[in-house]
Structure formats: C-alpha cells, structure tokens
Amino acid sequence: MRIVLLGTGGYHPNERRHTACLMLPELGLIFDAGTSFFRVQQFLQTRDLQIFLTHAHLDHIVGLSFFLVPMLTDQVDSVKLYGEASKLAAIQTHLFSEEIFPLLPDYEFTPLPETVSVREQGILQHISMEHPGGSVGYRIDWPGHSLAYITDTANPRQHLEFVKGVDLLIHECYFPDDMAEWADKTGHSHTTPVAELARDAQVGKLVLTHIDPQQTGDDPIGIKVAQQIFPNTILGEDLMELEF
C-alpha cells in the first residue's frame, strides 16, 4: 500500500515544504487539506474521495478551496469530507463564506462518527488530542497492516495506546529539542518525546512531519537524536512516497 506525503510543513508554506496533506491514491483516501492539496489532482486514481481533517486551523484546510476545478470538470464523482461537527461548521461559515469564496465546492460535509470504513477492508478510528482549539489523530487498521497519522499535539504520550503496534506512524515534529519551550507554548511536539512514543508503542516505522517552516535546512529537527531513540525514523519530505 502506498502513501504520498503531499505536504510536510506547518503554519505556512516555504520553498521546501507545503502545509499538511497525505494521500493514499489507490484508496482515494486523504488526510488534511493544507496548501499542498493542489497536488491531489495529479495523483487521482479513484472517482470517490474520503478526506479526514484533523482540525480546522488554516494550514490544514485552505486547500479545500483549491479543488473546485477538478469537481466542476467531472474528475471525481464524490468527495466526502469528515471532521468534528464544529470544525466543519466553521469551514462552511468562514472559509466558504460568500465574501471569501463565493462558489462552494460540492463537498459532502460529514461529522466524524466513531469509526469509518475505508477501502480494502480498513477501519478508521480517531482520538482527541491536546492542541489549541482541539485536534484529532487517526488510525487505520487493514487486514495485515496499519498506519496512524498524528499532528498538532503537545502531548505525544497521551496517544501511546492508540498508536501501539502500527506499521507506520506519521507524527508531527514541529521543533527540535532545544525549542521544547516553544512546543509547549504553541501546542506542538518536539523530537525526543515523539521518538520515545514510537519506541514505547513498538511501531514499525516513524515518519516525522509538520515541520517548522522557518527551518528550511536538511535537518530541522535533529534527526540523529530521534534515531538514537528509535532507529527506524525518517524525516518526511514533500512528495515522498512510502510503501507499508
């Protein structure tokens, strides 16, 4: 099964990273809709899409306004958008207000149920996380393999049981350890606690994403620190493709 990291940055895009969006093209499955959402069109392989939003901060939803043309030109039959009811209402009221974006794309706004069935016999679950305004993390279990997507959280330990044993954990790592104070202030994660989570949850592979956009170098989070704790750790990059 293949997942494409369409956007691996946080807050705003920079020359290296767009903001959050992940896609499993063969399944028509997408997490978040940041500025990288414009890339979805080139990876389309299904006529129906399921989009799961972690929350409604602008860096995770602005791309929903980029998909109007593919919908108007019949490149997809349906796009079901899942999220917490209050977040969906905020998107409809504000992002798609007539003054800001006058033509509402034909999304099917769907309050997030306890579980959701996805293609290939997958079952999706979610968990509430600690972040200003609230956020949710996701886990999908298929027969024989699994993944979890966790972003915008200040407390990785709180979802240890939720991600336990997944084959692939994609987790935000906004800051390196020497900026831990800023992680606490902003409701984000830093390197060591995320790597310790992967180790203690006995996941198969850890991919670090949602990187501080002020950091554009090759190692913005101290990858060796993470790998000393959990060796099978990599830093996510835009358009990276992973098999799991």
Structure, described:
By secondary structure, the protein is α/β, with parallel strands linked by helices. The protein has 7 helices and 14 strands. It has helices at 58-61, 68-72, 85-95, 160-163, 180-186, 191-201, 223-229; strands at residues 2-7, 21-24, 29-31, 48-52, 78-83, 108-111, 115-118, 122-129, 135-142, 145-150, 168-172, 205-209, 233-235, 240-243. The strands form 2 sheets. Strands 6-5-4-3-2-1-14 form a 7-stranded mixed sheet. The protein is globular.
In short:
The protein has 244 residues and is an alpha/beta fold. The chain contains seven helices and 14 strands.
Overall geometry: globular
Gyration radius, to the nearest Å? 17 Å
Strand order of the largest sheet: 6-5-4-3-2-1-14
Q: What is the number of helices?
A: 7
Q: What is the number of beta strands?
A: 14
H-E string = EEEEHHEHEEEEEHEHHEHEE
Residue share in β-strands: 25-35%
Structural class: alpha/beta
**Terminal Cα separation, in Å?**
6 Å
Helix content: 10-25%
Described by strand count, sense and barrel closure, the largest sheet is: 7 strands, mixed
Low-confidence stretches: none
The pLDDT mean sits at 97
Which characteristics define this entry?
7-stranded mixed beta sheet, 244 residues, 7 helices, 20% helix, alpha/beta, 14 strands
